[in-house]
């Protein structure tokens, strides 16, 4: 039996989505069956090897092409077959395999093969590892070549000895987020994800001690910024400066891992929806209970739940009318308890389901006080976590699709909830349809009444297409009254009558029912909706065609959701620009187009990390949005603008030569200058690189993009610290404008510090640093919110925690400034206490720089004798008493004595 029309359409859409996903995958993808027959190969595979799906109709056929040497082909066939058979038998991914193959054009490349079995199909992922293999071979030849290759390699290369890193190339810094100086202070397992730390540590220590360990494996790391990455590590034992050491080559495989997981997850989801739909299609009343029970079982197992159930309520929402349940082995049934549920005694539960549609509880402690009755019942059932999805119609709760976790706490993701909403609707619609059909069979007299209460719109038209009967739900969908719709021809409802006339005509000719979706309708009340319509031929008593009947569903929300998903798949959510996936698609499209010459501009927002570190990611996000707005203003509608990285943008300019592209780049710079004149507190600085490709060039659009990217980085290097200095100057100006301290504080603080410094005999350099420190020590407070900085009254614990970050923020800003970097360490330590109870490092005594100890006394004295937002100024005698009280605790006692002598000798005004 072939599936109904709507299922064919859904399957076609699913196949199309899957094909688009596979074509966008970052790795070569080949799908083969259990007999190793080729079924599908994406464009990435063809670009990588030159072979098409026709060349690999079987894996054996491909081995003959890819491995012309017979002895090597026997080795490849033997190892591949052994691994393939194991993967099929155990249904698990095989260890990555590496083979040298001959491409279709005669060149040889090294390919890493990964196999993921998925039932009858098997997904093979192929990655070009020629560069990595080349690096590994070169490393064996000589230490000199190693240095040259390592420092210029895009692959992370690192050496560790006695548990600590002793070497890392630039790519090692990039993949980990740490500088070399930071890495050399770290043990090699310090930034390994906790799930893999023990494994990596054990294997790494074995290598550096001269032992053996698996050469290659995958694991996760946590970068300095907290990002989780998947890396593929190739390790070996080496000798460094006469001692055993561990040598590793690491590649970021996060995108590849995510592609595999997403592909596998998508296939599993599509399979589940297909299995649910297949189980419930054309189900009879006698089969209903059995089929619903089967659907609960497969859904419960798919979601790894302990209990899966479906509650069906009566029309008045007073009690549970029907209850379906599946329990995992060892989990007790709750049917006796559930069937007696009274909704009137569960107001919180009913309110949440009707208002939110979903209750997703990880821990019963999350339930509010008003849900005490529900919490008690869930606890008595042994439930740790639960998820419940409501199916409502006309403001009433019809069904609840639920999942319980009994053996431990469980969190259900947004994606899983979305999937289960669809399945809940499928089950609910089948039950609704089945109930309606059962009622129609029981009594023809009940026919009209049932149709009137159906959740879907029901209609009957004559052969001319005029409405002769319909239920209230149909009027609700069309936004009209019964009088307005009666006698109207269905063609008048559709924006394009032809698209709906054709299925009606087919049904008339074949007598077979059909279903058609995504039909646009303009309703009586001015709405624009999409509907799904089923069409069945009506016959008279003689069996002759008499008209049509069917069901109408409003699928506008589903349609908009699909369109939103499609939009998000190609757009950056922050800036609303195109994302990297769309940009890559456009590169491929334009590369084969006739829109040459094509100019590419690579852009990078300078200083974003500094802004994020000091003012917070909110300010950084606003800067990104402003940057995107400027770029959009300058470009034409035919140009493609995308955010391709955290602070990176790329522009594609079709039919644009080099000189026209230069003009557009100049307009961007001019627009940035104009923006900065009115936004001096947070200026924009953009590094740019431009390259043009012509269809007569020996290179292609991808080479042009790389050239533009290289020129952009050259522009960034040429700017040097200038962009950062501009940002820092703006931050300092912003700090001054906020005027968070008493007028004249900086000048008084400078005078106090200068007198104390001269009295204790500081050098000219120290005195100069001290005076500069007096002016900029609170530079980091530019990143502290006003509501904390200007709060009247003491700070709470969370606010104080935020305030204590300002020395580190100031240190980061000063470190990026050529004028302030010499005192960056003093800014970091200016809140340390003599007894070690200060922050952020907790150092004490003379480990605290003398400049910071002097500043602490002068700053405290001036703060106490000046008005502040949270208190009035103290009398000088009171301030001196406080300094004595905290001498030896907060302050250096010897410097306190010096300060008090200066006061007593009237060298400092009280």
Description:
It is a single chain. The chain is an alpha+beta fold. Helices cover 47% and strands 20% of the residues. The chain has 35 helices and 24 strands. The strands form 5 sheets. A 5-stranded antiparallel β-sheet has the order 2-1-5-4-3, with helices on both faces. Strands 7-6-10-9-8 form a 5-stranded antiparallel β-sheet. Strands 12-11-15-14-13 form a 5-stranded antiparallel β-sheet, sandwiched between helices. Helix 22 packs antiparallel against helix 23 and helix 28 crosses helix 33 (850-864). The N and C termini lie far apart (99 Å). The model has no long low-confidence stretch (mean pLDDT 82).
Large-scale geometry: globular
Which stretches of 5+ consecutive residues score pLDDT under 50?
Answer: none
- The whole-angstrom Rg is 36 Å
Query: How many separate helices?
Result: 35
Give the helix/strand layout:
Blueprint: H1 5-23, E1 28-33, E2 38-41, H2 43-49, H3 59-66, H4 70-90, E3 97-102, E4 108-118, E5 121-128, H5 130-141, H6 143-152, E6 156-161, E7 164-168, H7 170-176, H8 180-183, H9 197-208, E8 216-222, E9 228-240, E10 243-252, H10 254-280, H11 288-302, E11 307-313, E12 320-327, H12 335-338, H13 347-356, E13 358-361, H14 372-380, E14 385-393, E15 396-405, H15 414-442, H16 447-453, E16 457-462, E17 467-470, H17 472-478, H18 482-485, H19 497-510, E18 514-522, E19 528-539, E20 545-554, H20 556-568, H21 580-591, E21 598-605, H22 608-615, H23 617-634, E22 640-643, E23 648-653, H24 658-678, E24 686-693, H25 701-719, H26 722-738, H27 745-759, H28 764-776, H29 786-789, H30 797-803, H31 806-815, H32 824-828, H33 850-864, H34 876-885, H35 893-904
Antiparallel strand pairs: 1-2, 1-5, 3-4, 4-5, 6-7, 6-10, 8-9, 9-10, 11-12, 11-15, 13-14, 14-15, 16-17, 16-20, 18-19, 19-20, 21-23, 21-24, 22-23
């Amino acid at each position: 039996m072939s599936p109904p029309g709507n299922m064919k359409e859904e399957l076609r859409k699913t196949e199309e989505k899957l094909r688009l996903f596979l074509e966008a995958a970052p790795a070569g993808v080949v799908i083969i069956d259990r007999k190793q027959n080729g079924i599908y190969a994406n464009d990435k595979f063809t670009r990588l090897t030159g072979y098409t799906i026709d060349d690999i109709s079987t894996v054996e056929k491909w081995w003959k092409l890819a491995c012309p040497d017979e002895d090597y082909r026997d080795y490849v066939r033997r190892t591949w077959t052994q691994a393939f058979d194991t993967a099929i038998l155990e249904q698990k991914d095989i260890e990555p395999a590496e083979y040298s193959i001959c491409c279709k054009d005669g060149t040889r490349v090294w390919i890493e093969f990964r196999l993921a079995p998925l039932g009858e199909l098997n997904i093979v992922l192929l990655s070009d590892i020629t560069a990595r293999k080349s690096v590994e071979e070169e490393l064996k030849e000589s230490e000199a070549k190693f240095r040259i290759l390592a420092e210029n390699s895009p692959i992370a290369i690192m050496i560790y000895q006695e548990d600590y890193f002793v070497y890392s190339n630039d790519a090692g810094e990039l993949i980990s987020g740490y500088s070399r100086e930071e890495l050399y202070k770290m043990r090699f397992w310090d930034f390994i994800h906790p799930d893999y730390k023990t494994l990596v540590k054990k294997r790494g220590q074995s290598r550096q001690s001269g032992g053996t360990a698996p050469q290659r494996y995958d694991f996760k790391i946590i970068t300095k910024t907290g990002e989780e990455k998947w890396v593929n590590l190739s390790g070996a034992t080496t000798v460094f400066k006469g001692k055993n050491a561990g040598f590793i080559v690491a590649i970021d495989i996060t995108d590849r891992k995510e592609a595999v997981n997403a592909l596998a997850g998508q296939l599993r989801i599509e399979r589940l929806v297909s299995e649910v739909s297949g189980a419930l299609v054309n189900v009879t009343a006698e089969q209903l209970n059995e089929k619903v029970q089967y659907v609960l079982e497969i859904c419960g197992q798919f979601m790894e739940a302990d209990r899966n159930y479906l509650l069906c309520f009566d029309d008045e929402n007073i009690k549970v009318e029907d209850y379906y349940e599946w329990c995992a082995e060892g989990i007790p049934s709750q049917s006796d308890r559930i069937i007696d549920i009274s909704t009137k005694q569960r107001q919180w539960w009913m309110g949440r389901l009707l208002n939110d549609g979903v209750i997703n509880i990880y821990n019963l402690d999350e339930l509010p006080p008003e849900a005490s009755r529900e919490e008690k019942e869930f606890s008595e059932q042994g439930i740790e976590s639960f998820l419940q999805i409501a199916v409502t119609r006309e403001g009433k709760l019809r069904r609840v699709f639920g999942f319980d976790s009994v053996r431990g706490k469980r969190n259900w993701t947004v994606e899983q909830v979305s999937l289960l909403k669809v399945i809940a609707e499928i089950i609910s619609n089948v039950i609704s349809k089945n109930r309606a059909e059962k009622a129609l069979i029981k009594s023809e007299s009940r026919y009209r009444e049932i149709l009137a209460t159906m959740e879907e719109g029901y209609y009957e038209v004559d052969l001319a297409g005029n409405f002769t009967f319909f239920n209230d739900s149909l009027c609700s969908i069309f936004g009209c009254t019964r009088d307005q719709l009666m006698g109207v021809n269905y063609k008048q409802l559709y924006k394009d009558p032809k698209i709906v006339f054709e299925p009606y005509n087919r049904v008339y000719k074949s007598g077979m029912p059909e279903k058609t979706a995504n039909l646009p309708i303009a309703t009586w009340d001015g709405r624009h909706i999409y509907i799904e319509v089923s069409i069945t031929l009506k016959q008279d008593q003689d069996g002759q065609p008499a008209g049509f009947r069917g069901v109408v569903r409003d699928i506008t929300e589903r349609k908009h959701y699909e369109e939103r998903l499609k939009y998000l798949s190609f757009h950056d959510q922050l800036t609303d620009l195109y994302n990297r996936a769309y940009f890559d698609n456009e590169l491929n499209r334009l590369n084969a187009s006739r829109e040459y010459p094509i100019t590419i501009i690579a852009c990078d927002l300078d200083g974003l990390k500094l802004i994020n570190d000091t003012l917070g990611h909110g300010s950084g996000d606003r800067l990104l949005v402003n940057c995107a707005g400027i770029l959009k203003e300058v470009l034409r509608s035919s140009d493609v603008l995308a955010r391709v990285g955290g602070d990176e943008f790329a522009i594609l300019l079709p039919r644009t030569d080099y000189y026209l592209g230069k003009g557009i780049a100049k307009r961007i710079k001019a627009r940035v200058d104009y923006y900065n004149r009115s936004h001096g507190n947070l200026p924009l600085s953009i590094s740019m690189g431009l390259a043009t490709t012509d269809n007569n060039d020996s290179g292609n659009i991808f080479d042009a993009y790389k050239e533009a990217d290289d020129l952009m980085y050259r522009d960034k290097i040429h700017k040097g610290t200038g962009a950062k200095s501009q940002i820092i100057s703006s931050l300092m100006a912003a700090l001054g404008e906020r005027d968070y301290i008493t007028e004249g504080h900086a000048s008084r603080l400078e005078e106090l510090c200068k007198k104390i410094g001269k009295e204790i005999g500081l050098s000219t350099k120290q005195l100069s640093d001290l005076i500069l420190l007096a002016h900029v020590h609170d530079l980091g407070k530019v990143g502290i919110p006003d509501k904390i900085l200007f709060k009247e009254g003491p700070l709470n614990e969370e606010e104080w925690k935020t305030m204590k970050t300002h020395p580190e923020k100031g240190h980061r800003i000063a470190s990026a400034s050529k004028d302030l970097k010499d005192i960056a360490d003093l800014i970091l330590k200016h809140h340390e206490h003599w007894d070690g109870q200060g922050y952020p490092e907790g150092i004490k005594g003379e480990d605290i720089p003398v400049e910071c100890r002097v500043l602490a006394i002068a700053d405290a004295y001036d703060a106490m004798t000046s008005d502040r937002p949270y208190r009035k100024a103290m009398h000088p005698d009171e301030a001196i008493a406080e300094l004595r009280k905290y001498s030896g605790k907060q302050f250096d006692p010897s410097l306190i004595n010096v300060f008090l002598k200066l006061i007593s000798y009237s060298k400092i005004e009280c």
